[in-house]
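Thread: "does anyone have the structure for this chain?"

Original post by V.I.:
We have the sequence but no experimental structure in hand. Need at least a predicted one for the grant figures.
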Amino acid sequence: MFERFTTDARTVVTTAQQEARRLHHDHIGTEHVLLALLADPAGPVARSTGLEAEAVRADVLQRIGGHNQDGPVLSDADAEDAAALKAIGIDLAAVREAIEANFGEGSLRLPRPAKKKRGLFGKFHAGSGHIPFTNRNKKVLELSLREAIRLRQKFIAPEHIMLGLLREGQGLAMLIMADRGIDFDRVRDDMERSVGATTA
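Reply from O.Q.:
Generated one for you, tokens below.
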């Protein structure tokens, strides 16, 4: 299937991996693919949705945590724990700062267990450094192929990936877009029009 991906679609996949690394996530989810689709502000997904990558990245950090340029970002659940600790006089941010000052930056991060690396769709690649796609995200990429077939196109472009995301209909990317009031039917129409004007 990957051989059908256009250069731009391949860029979406590699950018999604970079987004997951940037946020220190151990998976590539639909949220990372959405961020990759929004990486080009003049691209079809950014134009159609009106979303900006930075705003979506902030939504991802708020919902599932991660790291940004300023260090750890708490998810909503972590923030509730921090508030409970603060109520009894413990400042979680101060505790983290003290630990990192004494033991070094990143000392609170748990080491990842050594695992065999997996490639794009779960095949083993020794030392490839790929972060695994979630099952939902694999489904999105499979659905992008189905969308291309439905539209009688022999290539998969970023618009097909967005159509796959919409067709799958769940996951953090869809939740963020729904919360931001995105009109999914309009976006679907925009993607079909855009990809209809594209040549492989």
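V.I.: this helps a lot. The mean pLDDT is 80.
O.Q.: and The first strand starts at residue 66 and ends at 68.
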